[in-house]
Amino acid sequence: NTRIVLARRPVGWVDEGCFATEDVAEPEIGPEDVLLQSVYLSLDPYLRGRMNEGPSYAPGFALGAPIVSRVVARVIASRNARFAVGEHVWGFLDWAERVRVPRGEGLHKIDPALGRISHAVSVLGMPGLTAWIGAIQIGQPVPGDTVYVSSAAGAVGQLAGQFAKRAGARVVGSVGSEAKRAHLLARGGFDAVFNYKTTPPDEALRSHCPRGIDVYFDNVGGTTLEAALRHANAAARFPVCGMISAYNTEGDAGIRGLQAVLTKRITMTGFIIYDHVHHLPAYQARVAPWLRSGELWFDEDIVPGGLAQAPAALVGLFKGEAMGKRLVQVAPE
Ligand code: NDP
């Protein structure tokens, strides 16, 4: 059995040297315990904040301790009446091939009828609900609105755009490569997509949002947010979901043009999905049928090769490598 621990804290950009792989004993289970085989690790941008000293919105990882994230796993032994061998569950688990979960605490059963098991941590889980809360509950798009989504090919962005489109809005997305741009346009749900690395957001928004922006779903912050403020309409809504452009740097350089919040009566609403988890069952009931019927698409970027690939896969997430929701496959389903 192996696990991945935090070997040193990143300064600036996270690199593979921040992680170490350790051999550990095979876990043994006691009364009421559950033994799991990890199947998919969920790789998410917030993990960068947890590698820092001190708390972000989640407590930091201790040096030498395992990295923890949402993990989809299979029950391989159980002394707990609630969990049977062969069932799939997800929980906040160590990055290890096999883990013992005392009394099965914190595990959530995955309903295989809802979708693929990986969907429990992607489209039917945290990233999906995040897109819904931000794009629909906070964004409140109405037919005719222009909605702009940054990191539009990411786990959250691809859904935020499609949800806004279903609500009747005109949807514009930004991404960091031509491949992502072509892919999103081919997949559908976005009326226009631009590559922020080749066209500055200010210039792109001027041409793609001629009637201004009514909702900006912010995943990146920085100069992209500045450009969105400049092109916002009066009474625009800005669900502030993430600011990934600042996660590996010393923080953002300061947003210019914030006065637009006042002059245009913009509502900027930061939100953290932990406060909205009670909406998950209703969200799943609404969205799972759309997935099954093909009305909604969702891309996962599953990195093969086992647990050892996780550090490089997380480093690559911040470099824009992933096309869709990034997961690492630790073992076959
Ligand atoms: P993403 O898949 O969107 O994140 C990875 C992508 O971010 C990369 O592929 C890259 O895409 C883009 N990116 C990386 N660096 C930059 C940069 N400097 N400027 C612009 N884009 C960059 O992850 P998620 O969909 O999981 O998360 C999206 C955002 O939502 C993140 O900011 C995350 O922290 C936040 N979030 C917030 C939650 C909440 O509760 N508020 C919950 C879940 C996520 P590209 O190639 O297009 O540049």
Automatic annotation (TrEMBL):
Residues 12-328 form the Enoyl reductase (ER) domain. CDD domains: PGDH (cd05288). The keyword Signal does not apply. Coiled coil: none annotated. The keyword Oxidoreductase applies. Keywords: Oxidoreductase. Pfam families: ADH_N_2, ADH_zinc_N. GO terms for molecular function: oxidoreductase activity, acting on the CH-CH group of donors, NAD or NADP as acceptor. This is NADP-dependent oxidoreductase. It comes from Pseudaquabacterium pictum. The lineage of its organism: Bacteria, Pseudomonadati, Pseudomonadota, Betaproteobacteria, Burkholderiales.
